[in-house]
Amino acid sequence: MAKTLYDKLWDSHLVQQRDDGSALIYIDRHLLHEVTSPQAFEGLRMAGRQPWRLDANLATPDHNVPTDYAERSGGVAAIQDPVSQIQVQTLDDNCKAFDIVEFEINDRRQGIVHVIGPELGATLPGMTVVCGDSHTATHGALGALAHGIGTSEVEHVLATQCLIQQKMKNMLVRVDGTLLPGVTAKDVVLAVIGHIGTAGGNGFAIEFGGEVIRGLSMEGRMTVCNMAIEAGARVGMVAVDQSTIDYVRGRPYAPTGEQWELAESAWRELHSDSDAHFDAVIELRGEDIFPQVTWGTSPEMVLPVDGTVPDPAAISDAGQRDAVERALKYMGLQGGMAITDIRPQKVFIGSCTNSRIEDLRAAAAVVKGYKVDAGINQALVVPGSGIVKEQAEAEGLDKIFIEAGLEWREPGCSMCLAMNADKLEPGEHCASTSNRNFEGRQGFGGRTHLVSPAMAAAAAIAGHFVDVREWEMKS
Amino acid sequence: MRAFTVETGLVAPMDRANVDTDMIIPKQFLKSIKRSGFGPNLFDEQRYLDEGQPGRDNSQRPLNPDFPLNAARYQGASVLLARDNFGCGSSREHAPWALDDYGFRCVIAPSYADIFYNNCFKNGLLPIVLDAAIVEQLFQQMYANEGYQLTIDLERQVVITSAGDEMAFEVDAFRKHCLLHGLDEIGLTLEQADAIRTYETGWRQQSPWLFDVIQ
């Protein structure tokens, strides 16, 4: 029978199918960070259990780590927020106690879990990958079955190397055609979310396909899969092709020699069969996608940059009108105003969505030779990992950012969710390359606008949102 | 895990769609390394007028008078009535922990985000899906009747009004079994240790590059 990519990955990891519809699925790679693991380790201790398979696990602190060099350079002991410090220290202690490999706060391999997994080859095509973090779908860009789990499941995976799962339905999101210049992977996924809504993918595993997706770099595919959860889907993935193979080859934990040959031939099968059945198919055209900006408090509240903020008076459905009114009130925006009239006070370039080398290059190309607008209180660039930081510095990107007036920081999740010191003040608008514009997400009372790295960089210079397709690059 | 069999309780509203987990429990409270104590900060940004911080005495903070859970009529509620896509966003299990710690035993909504839905079952919290039209009726009945209660019978898979009207709901058989009996899923899975080892041996032969690399 013809199978989808998801079907293939599911079948190859099926330990046991049960009569009641649930199944036991084997987990190849388990990534851990400091926020969602302490209660799981405590659970193991209380039950007197040990991890099933140590070499399946890899840990790093990312959510709480300071990104300011002065605070960061002192390691865990120097973290000023005592509650954050305890959480990072607890991860170190737990990994030592249970003998789990951890890249600690100032290890050059430390970074956001969803950045370091692929870049180290710790996540590979054909794997099942889980992590106590909803953006784990990122790793699906490699042709892996990857999704977020809760802390009880973190404990379950540690103890049993398995998860009890119900199989999801299959959805294909196909983006054909070509992207306009200046339109990026972030704009594609925001457009998809705007199209199907934040609950559109509930219950589905999404495979992203079509000419546009195949034409994206691996970093771009990671950006797309990363935000599958913002469309409601736990799983996002892309079939393996030559780009995948080329990306994985030579990574530190990737196979070599004879094992590489075996692996590559297995990975070449990781695509949906041509006649595979999808329960839902969504189609978009690349040419129809413009640079996107969110205006509200849900990722589905998104518009092309040349759009105007919705006017509640023009909405007939009472529930929708209420939601728009509530969002506009929180965001401090007027219905009918142009997106390009929105003026951010902060800019954040980073997060598991957009902190890879390609993202930093795109942002640097825009700001090169310019200065940050006087209306911007702070513009942060936070690389996704120590390795991304090294590469960016080797390319001189850090100097471009600093000369333009942006701050070059140490790697971590940073202002995406503001668990460290990087946050918005009440009422501040932020042009952010992160993934969620929920109320309070980037700081109490903060107002988030999700955009691509190039769009965030252009807003930092112009002081308001601009169409990056019309940007004059000073190269 | 605590078992869930039959629950009768006061119903309280969270009357908006797409309630995200950042709203249920804001990120600053995720720094805790414990499973308990999140109840006072459930819906923190809606519930209080100022910004909450871990370790603060919440009893001294100004309450938002417009937030329904602060109204006298909803004190002691154990059933939360909600709208579409409840629990969207992050995978934080702190969301069901906070609902549980506050005193909720059950959520009723037309739909949930997948990870939140799954996390509830691990914590003795029952997320019930009912038709949007039925949920709308329940909202109206609740608003019209102070002290409005519902009974949830998991074994029979019905929500029962005080007038005796019954509304059936679906729940996956395995999750129902675990919740009814308060079973430890890890213990259940470890009963299959031989099957896991057999699978693992075969998978290692087939894909040796997935093993013994990170150590």
From TrEMBL, chain A:
[4Fe-4S] cluster binds at C352, C413, C416. NCBIfam families: leuC, PRK05478.1, PRK12466.1. The gene is leuC. Catalyzes the isomerization between 2-isopropylmalate and 3-isopropylmalate, via the formation of 2-isopropylmaleate. Binds 1 [4Fe-4S] cluster per subunit. Residues 7-463 form the Aconitase/3-isopropylmalate dehydratase large subunit alpha/beta/alpha domain. The keyword Iron-sulfur applies. It is an enzyme of class 4 (lyase). Belongs to the aconitase/IPM isomerase family. LeuC type 1 subfamily. It catalyses: (2R,3S)-3-isopropylmalate = (2S)-2-isopropylmalate. Pathway: Amino-acid biosynthesis; L-leucine biosynthesis; L-leucine from 3-methyl-2-oxobutanoate: step 2/4. Its cofactor is [4Fe-4S] cluster. The lineage of its organism: Bacteria, Pseudomonadati, Pseudomonadota, Gammaproteobacteria, Cellvibrionales. This is 3-isopropylmalate dehydratase large subunit. It comes from the Bacteria. Keywords: 4Fe-4S, Amino-acid biosynthesis, Branched-chain amino acid biosynthesis, Iron, Iron-sulfur, Leucine biosynthesis, Lyase, Metal-binding. It comes from Candidatus Litorirhabdus singularis.
From TrEMBL, chain B:
CDD domains: IPMI_Swivel. Its EC number is 4.2.1.33. GO terms for molecular function: 3-isopropylmalate dehydratase activity. Pfam families: Aconitase_C. Residues 1-131 form the Aconitase A/isopropylmalate dehydratase small subunit swivel domain. It comes from the Bacteria. Pathway: Amino-acid biosynthesis; L-leucine biosynthesis; L-leucine from 3-methyl-2-oxobutanoate: step 2/4. It catalyses: (2R,3S)-3-isopropylmalate = (2S)-2-isopropylmalate. Keywords: Amino-acid biosynthesis, Branched-chain amino acid biosynthesis, Leucine biosynthesis, Lyase. Catalyzes the isomerization between 2-isopropylmalate and 3-isopropylmalate, via the formation of 2-isopropylmaleate. Belongs to the LeuD family. LeuD type 1 subfamily. HAMAP family: LeuD_type1 (MF_01031). Heterodimer of LeuC and LeuD. This is 3-isopropylmalate dehydratase small subunit. It comes from Candidatus Litorirhabdus singularis.
